[in-house]
Amino acid sequence: MARRILVTGITGFIAKRIAYDLLAQGETVRGTLRKASRGEEVRAALADLGPEALDRLSFIEADLMSDAGWAEALEGIDAVIHTASPFPITKIKDERTIIAPAVEGTRRVLSTAQAAGVTRVVLTSSMEAVMHGVTSDPMTETDWSNPKAPTCSAYTRSKIFAEEAAWEFIEDHHEMELTVINPGLVCGTPMDRHTGSSVEVIERLMAGKDPAVPEFELPVVDIADVSACHVAALDAPASIGQRYICAERFVSFPDMARTLKAEFPDRRIPTRRAPNWLVGALALFDSQIALIKPMLGKRMRLSHAAAARDLGMTFVPAEEAVLRTGRFLAAK
To answer: Mean pLDDT over all residues of the chain?
Structure first.
């Protein structure tokens, strides 16, 4: 019998792919969105599944900062995949505007699910909650970012505090079964042109907006693998009470640029490494650049062994994930 899965924030980059994969395997999906009018956008993105699958897709309006709609959203649901969380690309003036929706929204979803008798929840967190201020080599799921680390942004703190809030809720409600997925920079092929902020990182490289790129690493993962981790967790009892690094490996910006340049030689993709002293100087005038200064030239490794063991994951190579984004952008 098909399960009824609630996917929060279904208009999101990750959520659309999760909804697609759930529907493709025969599940029934209800998605929350802040504006009902965006339901057609989601249907269009998933259209190649066919009318039978789309008949198993429905929507309900609900906002992370309001109780309205959440009880109705959880009615008759078997499990929740909570992806909804703000992800800004521009500078935040007041970090409470991003931290409050992430933390309060997570508590709201979990408490409403618990009240509705829905015990199974898969939460989308981030490598941002794993990798900052961490010296482990390789880093694993036991690592937690230090919110006071000099590399932490408002977004990073929102992911740390939201995930902490989820685990605190579980400590007080032992009947709840939580799995947390921690993706890195999400590349790959988007479902439609409404892409995530991760894609904008590759788009900036493709557009040749910078003369050089910093020697700075990020953990890379393909969108298909992010979705696969969430979906697999629903059927993996071993994943209950666990968090999972969801990334293939760390890749530097110069390596990403060289990978893209080899595929698109006619584009003005910057491959020259920006000297660390120059990035450091720019950091004096730009708070966003200042965040990456402590990580310049730092080599980081991660282990996704737990996801391979418990979720059956074999990750798409990071270079291929980056190229898939590049091909999507070039075609667009």
So the answer is: 90
